Amino acid sequence: MPDDLDFSGQAVLVTGGAQGIGRAIVEAFALRGARVVIADLGLVRAEAVAGELTAAGCQVQAVGVDLADATAIFDMMTELEQRLGRLDTLVHNAGYFPLTPFAEITPAILERTLAVNLSALFWLTQAALPMFRRQGRGCVLVTSSVTGPRVAYPGLSHYAASKAGVNGFIRNAALELAPENVRVNGVEPGMIATPAMANLGDDGVNQDIARRVPLGRLGQPNDIAGAMLFLASSLAGYVTGQTLVVDGGSTLPEV
């Protein structure tokens, strides 16, 4: 294992880590020596993942949290500090995106989308700062999306708006936190084969999408986890305020 990708002794928090992309991120860090905490609304599912990885020799814990609740976020981070004593990498992966036509978006849908996808990122980062400062460094990573910053998708106006906001956060927070030696970056996934992706269409629709991807397939959760590992590692030690598009070439212009 290259030393640059050895996270032994480091503590990593992954929100939304109980399934899909989040689970792949949890596994990627845990298998490389990190102590990982899964923060997820579905505590039972998160505990099952933690149990599987612990049985495989990893160090993984699970906590339940509603990321739409700022107070709950700060309470969780206080508990995490007491448990682990440090935090090296914060990965905000949790997302909320009920497929909803624009005219049918309600205040409740919009407010929860913005709270989970965007506002939680502010509160998680604020709560992590004291630990980062004591260590003299820190890393904040975000699962953004090509939807919003680069492309549009029917029924996801609320989600697109939240992810455009996420990318704005990445750039500005990176600038403000650079003097603290805290790097802030994100990954913009394209179409990734996850349970959430399955909700956007049947197998025929997803197969058609895959055929139109230049690399000829839907992405896999591990494709995103690999990008996160790179951005958290010393290999990316001079990278901040950036997003890495992982979409199989889907957003390349056609000629």
Automatic annotation (TrEMBL):
SMART domains attached to this UniProt entry: PKS_KR
Please give the CDD domains that the UniProt record associates with this protein: SDR_c
Record-annotated Ketoreductase domain positions: 10-224
Kindly give the InterPro entries that the UniProt entry links to this protein: KR_dom, NAD(P)-bd_dom_sf, Sc_DH/Rdtase_CS, SDR_fam
Q: Which domain of life is it from?
A: Bacteria
Q: Tell me, what is an example of a GO biological process annotation in this record?
A: fatty acid elongation
Q: What does the record give under GO molecular function?
A: oxidoreductase activity, acting on the CH-OH group of donors, NAD or NADP as acceptor
Q: Which family does it belong to?
A: Belongs to the short-chain dehydrogenases/reductases (SDR) family.
- Enumerate the NCBIfam families for this protein: PRK07231.1, PRK12826.1-4
Note the PANTHER family from the entry. 3-OXOACYL-[ACYL-CARRIER-PROTEIN] REDUCTASE, CHLOROPLASTIC, SHORT-CHAIN DEHYDROGENASES/REDUCTASES FAMILY MEMBER
What is the protein name for this chain? 3-ketoacyl-ACP reductase
